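Appendix B. Worked example

We walk through a single record from start to finish. Start with the input: the chain for STAS domain-containing protein, Streptomyces dubilierae, length 139.
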Amino acid sequence: MSDARSRPVPGQVPVLRLGDVLLVTLQGDLYDSTAQQLQQDLAETISRTGVRGVLIDISGVEIVDSFLGRVLAEIAAQAKLLAARTVVAGMRPAVAITLVELGLTLPGLSTALSTEAGMQLLSQHPPATGAGGPRQESP
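Next comes the structure step. The output line below is what the pipeline stores for this chain.
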């Protein structure tokens, strides 16, 4: 998908690979087509590269609705099946309140206050084993 030198395509969410973690930074609204493309890109990149974690920075998101909550939960579920862990970082207090009021629990997601804390969290804990068992490197 992307590495630190890649430039995002307009209408796409940039995904950067930092070691064994994919960093996704959400800014503003996430539309249906963009969300579907992001989910597909992340699943393909996790599968192809064998990264251990996905860090989603939502500090640039003003409002999280049920759609975005569902997208985050689906990304986490897909990543877990591919033996990667998902952390959401930078959640604003108003966003957390909204998620609770909507009754969204976001299963499979860990949270961190900042991107740095999220990277540290991903580096401290081994990834969850996906449905296929432990990941094996190809020769």
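Two observations about the output. Residues 32-49 form the longest helix (18 residues). The radius of gyration is 14 Å.
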